[in-house]
From TrEMBL:
InterPro entries the UniProt entry points to: B30.2/SPRY_sf (IPR043136), SPRY_Ssh4-like (IPR035780)
Organism from which the protein derives: Exophiala sideris
Signal sequence residues: none
The organism's place on the tree of life at top rank: Eukaryota
Protein name: SPRY domain-containing protein
Length: 329
């Protein structure tokens, strides 16, 4: 009685029943229900089911000659990358911070509409060079030799200073290509006579007013320049500039210019295109200013034809040179 009461129930345990059909032949069902699945295991199938490759299909086809460039001179030059510092001379961070504060306190002038006489003077190159403030020009001389030529001489103790013309060479209100429907070009030339040492240099460029008088052109808003001590170009960049040309040397004549043209957009619209260029020894190097939008400072503000631009010359240390403003054209 006791043995019968605790005897196991008939049939397989529940874990077996949930897989096997409910029939009287439990043993047969158990054997068939837990048989291995038909066919080879998956690891076998994934290789055997792939169509075999012929020897010619086992590797990619041979590379053709056009896939390689044997003559690297055919490649375009790599883009000039922005630098944090110059390899030659660098202003202090305090000077840069003071200049940023100065620019915040002195917003750019709005474009002016010149009279016909004033515009004609600028076209003829009849500019006056503004004397820097007295604290910045202790060892500094400016001499006008002709209506379009000036002589500049500084002592080796001269600190960073910028020299601007009294009139713009580009008036946004009257010279803008979107208004005139024709290109407009500005330029001027320096003739270098002396560079005292490695701590002396000349920067040649353009800038809008007002501009911090104790800073070189190209370092701040609405300005660009090529600096002669390291040959780098600066576009609203207070850092280390970008590689451009070789350093300036005595005896060289260097022309700096900008060309304003239009480039078509969709729907019969156009936009301004600005090219900066420098000519020396018969060779011209240029860069597209509107491609400098990755600059880390103020981008291309003021340089796309929207601001009046003045010839801007920066000096530091002991230098001597002539500035020549040739008539337009």
């Amino acid at each position: 009685m006791t043995d019968q009461h605790y005897a196991p129930p008939p049939g397989p345990p529940p874990s077996y029943r949930q897989h096997a059909p409910t029939t009287n032949n439990a043993k047969a069902n158990n054997n068939s229900d837990f048989a291995p699945p038909p066919g080879p295991p998956p690891s076998h199938r994934q290789h055997n089911d792939i169509p075999s490759q012929s020897p010619t299909e086992a590797n990619p086809p041979p590379y053709q000659n056009w896939m390689t460039i044997e003559d690297t001179s055919l490649l375009p030059p790599p883009p000039a990358l922005p630098e944090d510092t110059s390899p030659t001379n660098n202003a202090s961070y305090d000077s840069a911070a003071q200049a940023h504060t100065w620019c915040t306190s002195h917003p750019l002038y709005t474009p002016s509409t010149p009279s016909a006489d004033i515009h004609a003077l600028a076209q003829k190159g009849h500019f006056i060079l503004d004397q820097p403030p007295p604290p910045l020009a202790k060892s500094f001389t400016l001499t006008q030799t002709t209506a379009t030529k000036w002589h500049i001489r500084t002592h080796s103790s001269q600190s960073d200073v910028i020299i601007l013309t009294n009139l713009p060479s580009y008036f946004a209100a009257t010279d803008h290509p979107l208004t005139t429907h024709r290109p407009f070009q500005i330029s001027y030339t320096i003739h270098i006579k002396r560079i005292a040492n490695a701590n002396s240099g000349i920067a040649i460029g353009f800038a809008a007013k007002p501009y911090p008088p104790f800073r070189l052109p190209g370092w701040h808003r609405a300005s660009l320049a090529v600096h002669g001590d390291d040959g780098r170009r600066f576009t609203n960049d207070p850092w280390g500039g970008r590689e451009f040309v070789d350093a300036f040397k005595p005896g060289q004549s260097i022309t700096m210019g900008m060309t304003f043209t239009t480039t078509p957009l969709a729907a019969n619209a156009s936009t301004i295109k600005t090219t900066a260029w420098l000519t020396r020894n018969g060779r011209t190097d240029e860069w597209q200013v509107d491609e400098q939008r990755d600059q880390r400072d103020e981008g291309v503000e003021g340089l796309m034809g929207e601001a009046d631009l003045y010839p801007a010359i920066g000096v530091f240390g002991g230098v001597e040179f002539e500035v020549e403003f040739r008539p337009k054209g």
